[in-house]
Specification:
Blueprint lengths: L2 H11 L17 H14 L4 H14 L3 H18 L4 H4 L1 H13 L3 H15 L13 H13 L6 H14 L4 H18 L9 H12 L4 H13 L3 H14 L4 H13 L3 H14 L4 H16 L7 H29 L4 H13 L3 H12 L6 H17 L4 H13 L5 H20 L4 H13 L5
Helix pairs in contact: 1-7, 2-3, 3-4, 3-6, 4-6, 6-7, 8-9, 8-10, 9-10, 10-11, 11-12, 12-13, 12-14, 13-14, 14-15, 15-16, 16-17, 17-18, 18-19, 18-20, 19-20, 20-21, 20-22, 21-22, 22-23
């Protein structure tokens, strides 16, 4: 095809509703994190296999792994043919849209056009709107799950809206109700849990999922986590126990159940569940991270030795062993995914707590070199590293440099505000001691310029 034909094809592709035309795009997701999460999902989650294949195809394609993306899409199509024969055409819209885009990226324009023709034949009877797509519940629902799987909280509200649109035409579909409940669960967690269960929409919709599908064990453990907040401990505990009984080897249930017991201060039970999940998914950095946090909780717990004459030595041994376990599991995260920002920051904070400052500095130095991360993560790293330099390394100069770097990253966040606050606190201290301090005056001038004020 000529360039003109290629441009015309691109115009058609832009009309599709699929992963290549939705947010989040490469700039706003942690590609490696999403890839690992999707691979785990494909191993264990039969319900949403097609969605995972589709999103993994997108992730592989934007990393230049187009042949792998094509294989993902073939597997998605095969799964649909085997498991959703009656709904194949409706459910294949996104798979075919992604296929058209991947072939386009490979320069295989004829193949891309073939998929567009297939979409036109499918969508024509389903919609009076766009020529190559149909905004039906299956499309809205899969978009919602894709936004949730991105792991970026800025997309949770849009995900909720997608599920709402899916449910308008298919109100009893458990896939979409579960997606809607999950989006609400996460949004409520971010904004602060409502004061009582009557105000919690996620509780209502998780109960609706269980009315329609009493075997949805992920809905059980999510509901349990919510009910625990509302002091309905008896029902919450029963739900967790029932979920573990029904799906004792499902990693997602084990994770949420472990979180429930950790919040209930039963750290041993949480660790047991996480280690069981780790046997099933040995490369899961999420599990290593959570186990490390559990051991850290144990470390924070005061010990009461009944034998005071041997107590100090025994407690020292216990503390040494807990520190070793924490470091072991944090190191596993570092080994498998050095770019996983949150676990690495927790590892650095833990090292500060046990006064291993050289290791903490090593972790911060490595994090400061990361480039393919979100602006907020960059700000968080500079904020935490700056506080470490200020308080543990006693280097005001390095701290101020890092706070300024955080401030210069143009992204509105609480971390940006904290960088500014620490700079202003430092400025006030310096100028109180010496109103003519050159460095402080220069930084004050910079802050004034940011505010649009004269120096």
């Amino acid at each position: 095809m000529s360039n003109t034909q290629g441009d015309l094809l691109k115009e058609k592709l832009d009309q599709l509703s699929c992963h290549f035309t939705w947010g989040p795009q490469k700039e706003t997701i942690q590609v490696n994190d999403v890839e690992y999460r999707l691979q785990d999902s494909l191993k264990f989650d039969v319900k949403y296999k097609v969605m995972s294949y589709n999103q993994l195809a997108f992730v592989n394609c934007i990393q230049g792994k187009c042949e792998e993306a094509i294989q993902n899409l073939k597997e998605a199509e095969q799964f649909l043919r085997e498991n959703h024969k009656d709904e194949f055409e409706r459910r294949s819209i996104i798979t075919y849209g992604n296929s058209a885009w991947v072939h386009y990226h490979m320069g295989q324009l004829t193949e891309a056009q073939t998929y567009l023709h297939k979409l036109e034949m499918i969508c024509k009877p389903l919609s009076d709107g766009p020529r190559y797509t149909a905004m039906i519940p299956e499309v809205y629902g899969e978009k919602g799950w894709s936004l949730l799987t991105s792991g970026n909280s800025i997309y949770y509200k849009e995900a909720k809206e997608c599920f709402e649109k899916a449910l308008e035409k298919d109100s009893d579909n458990t896939e979409w109700i579960m997606g809607y409940a999950t989006a609400l669960f996460r949004l409520e967690s971010i904004s602060g849990t409502p004061a009582n269960r009557q105000q919690s929409q996620s509780v209502r919709h998780l109960r609706r999922v269980l009315q329609l599908d009493s075997d949805d064990t992920v809905a059980m453990v999510l509901l349990a986590l919510k009910l625990r907040i509302f002091n309905q401990k008896k029902e919450a505990t029963e739900l967790v126990e029932e979920a573990l009984q029904k799906t004792p080897d499902f990693p997602y249930v084990l994770r949420y159940a472990a979180k429930f017991w950790r919040l209930e201060k039963d750290v041993e039970k949480a660790i047991g569940l996480l280690k069981k999940a780790l046997e099933i998914t040995p490369d899961s950095i999420f599990l290593h991270h959570q186990i490390a946090l559990c051991y850290e909780l144990k470390l924070n717990k005061p010990t009461h030795n009944p034998f005071p004459q041997n107590g100090s030595n025994c407690e020292h041994q216990q503390k040494t062993e807990l520190i070793r376990e924490c470091k072991h599991h944090f190191a596993k995260v570092d080994e498998q995914r050095p770019s996983a920002v949150k676990p690495q920051l927790d590892f650095a904070q833990f090292c500060v707590k046990v006064k291993d400052y050289s290791k903490a500095e090593e972790i911060y130095d490595k994090l400061l070199k990361l480039v393919s991360i979100s602006p907020r993560e960059m700000q968080t790293i500079r904020l935490k590293a700056g506080l470490f330099q200020m308080h543990q390394m006693k280097s005001e100069s390095n701290a101020i440099t890092l706070f300024l770097e955080g401030l210069n990253i143009e992204h509105e966040s609480s971390e940006w505000k904290m960088c500014r606050r620490h700079l202003e606190q430092w400025l006030n201290r310096k100028l109180q001691r010496n109103p003519q301090d050159n460095k402080a005056l220069r930084i004050k001038s910079l802050l004034n310029e940011m505010d649009g004020n004269s120096p």
